[in-house]
From TrEMBL:
Residues 74-89 have a biased composition (Basic and acidic residues). The keyword Isomerase applies. It comes from Saccharothrix tamanrassetensis. Residues 13-141 form the Mycothiol-dependent maleylpyruvate isomerase metal-binding domain. It is an enzyme of class 5 (isomerase). This is Maleylpyruvate isomerase.
């Protein structure tokens, strides 16, 4: 179900898939490296729980702009570090608690266009943010094969189009799908590959397959 174009059901589907992936997670696996440099799986799981809670706070305070993380970015980073050492059971419980809080907060939303502090956006934007965080970081855990839906890949390309460098007209062609995008303007560059690999590359992750063409160096993820 989508409410006013907010991907509500997609978010909870993503969390359910995450739950399946981490159902058998052990304490030893929590401390092992994730795909993200410098982060263990514990860091990734702590971040997922904390960002889900942060977006719940945005909805709970509808009509009043509050910081997603009390104390700002330093507090966010400190919480991830502190919470990364939880046991596997504690991580699962923290994520379950965060999802329950998010569901309750979203049930009370009156206007998905309400402004929020997060990226100076709207509550709808926070729903897309949770979707991105859960889908992408489930991949980062490197615990099981992860395949993103075509709809999520569409969103990744749209959201990360700003990563295309200036002076480049980038055409992305999905070889396992009918999708094709042209982003930016300037020198023509074409990149071809499977849909998930294109989305992973744009999201700064290593594609599982091969991208053909000359993929440009992307701008930072803002």
């Amino acid at each position: 179900m989508t409410i006013e174009n907010a991907p509500i059901e997609a978010v909870f589907d993503a969390h359910r898939r995450l739950g399946t992936v981490i159902a058998g997670l052990t304490d030893d696996q929590v401390g092992e490296p994730s795909v993200l440099p410098g982060w263990t799986r514990g860091h990734v799981l702590a971040h997922i729980a904390n960002v889900t809670t942060a977006m719940a706070r945005q909805a709970e305070n509808e009509g009043t702009k509050v910081e997603p993380y009390p104390g700002g970015r330093p507090a966010r980073d400190a919480a991830i570090e502190a919470d990364s050492g939880r046991s596997a059971d504690e991580h699962r419980a923290a994520i379950d608690t965060a999802v329950t809080r998010l569901a309750k907060a979203w049930d009370g939303v009156r206007d998905w266009n309400a402004p929020v502090t997060y990226r100076d956006g709207t509550l709808r934007d926070t729903a897309y943010a949770v979707w991105r965080e859960v889908e992408i970081h489930t991949f980062d855990l490197d615990l099981a094969p992860v395949r993103w839906s075509p709809e999520f890949c569409d969103h990744v390309v749209e959201f990360l189009a700003q990563r295309v460098p200036d002076g480049v007209r980038l055409t992305l062609v999905a070889t396992d799908d009918s999708r094709e995008w042209t982003l930016g303007s300037g020198e023509a560059v074409e990149v071809r590959g499977e849909l998930n690999d294109i989305a992973r590359w744009l999201a700064g992750r290593e594609p599982k397959g091969t991208l053909t063409g000359e993929p440009p160096v992307l701008n930072p993820w803002l």
